[in-house]
Amino acid sequence: QSKTVSGSSYQFYHLAMDIRTFENVKFENALYKALDHGELELYFQPQIDYSTRSIIGTEALLRWNHSTEGLISPDRFIALAEETGLIVPIGEWVIRSACNQIKKWQEKGYPPIVVSVNLSARQFEQNNLFQTVKGILDEVGVSPELLCLEITENQIIKNTELTIQTMKELQAIGINMSIDDFGTGYSSLGYLKNLPINALKIDKSFIQELKSNDDNSAIANTIITLAKNLDLDLVAEGVETLEQAEFLASRECYIMQGYYFNVPLKVNEFESTYLATKGEFL
Ligand code: C2E
Ligand code: MG
Ligand code: MG
Ligand code: MG
């Protein structure tokens, strides 16, 4: 028996866990305060109609201005926000901020564009998501047609019945419902046909290797045909090159979002580049 060795290695392991947990708790506490401290911010990435070279919408993407770590991307904190349930108040803040922004742009007389917001499964589980969203739209005075809510297939699967019911209610008052990262989940065709949705967003992984990879162009082609047959709008995300844009346009998929056009921008830069000017963006 080597009690000492296993004992000390256990202790070592235990200590390491404590340090990690301490870091997690610190991060979690900071996230709790982020909302109250005004450290959350929406960035806006344009969605372009490539056939007319005009802007038709924008996706609002969350950023965290951490006091010591600087700008933190959602990939580093959304999962934690979902686990802790913080995504509910944070998600509500995102919807409200997006609606306030729509209102401000309206008041400045800019041509209307649809603003897309990402939702997590947890937000549907709070039971009154529909009332929350409708309440915000009414209170701020924004038309539901100017809001699009994005959810991934995998998020829908987490609580299918309640989520689809709520999506139906949201869609019924005129909000656009969209499936994000489409093609990476597990929905069957029959399942998709019964979802209350207006649009699909082709996942960027299928766009990024277009041309150089036949499998991905086959998948992109299939999704484009699928959207057409189901009469759904289609957005290609992660468009980074002219070649990818031309490939999509040649298949009549014209709505695009990606670094080829622009990265997500701070609101002022987005506004001056895409709303205050009537110029061409390409
Ligand atoms: P998403 O909704 O699929 O958003 C698209 C992501 O792709 C964004 O990353 C965007 O910056 C990035 N992207 C856009 N164009 C390109 C491109 O051409 N190439 C590449 N490589 N990437 C591109 P971001 O902003 O880091 O957000 C990551 C994810 O975090 C989002 O993926 C979304 O799932 C989640 N997220 C962001 N904001 C929110 C939010 O307010 N609520 C919730 N629940 N999730 C959010
Ligand atoms: Mg999205
Ligand atoms: Mg996506
Ligand atoms: Mg995503």
From TrEMBL:
Protein name, entry field: Histidine kinase
Transmembrane recorded as keyword: no
GO MF annotation terms: kinase activity
UniProt keyword DNA-binding present: no
Species classification: Bacteria, Bacillati, Bacillota, Bacilli, Bacillales
Record keywords, A-Z: Coiled coil, Kinase, Transferase
Domain EAL span(s) in chain numbering: 24-278
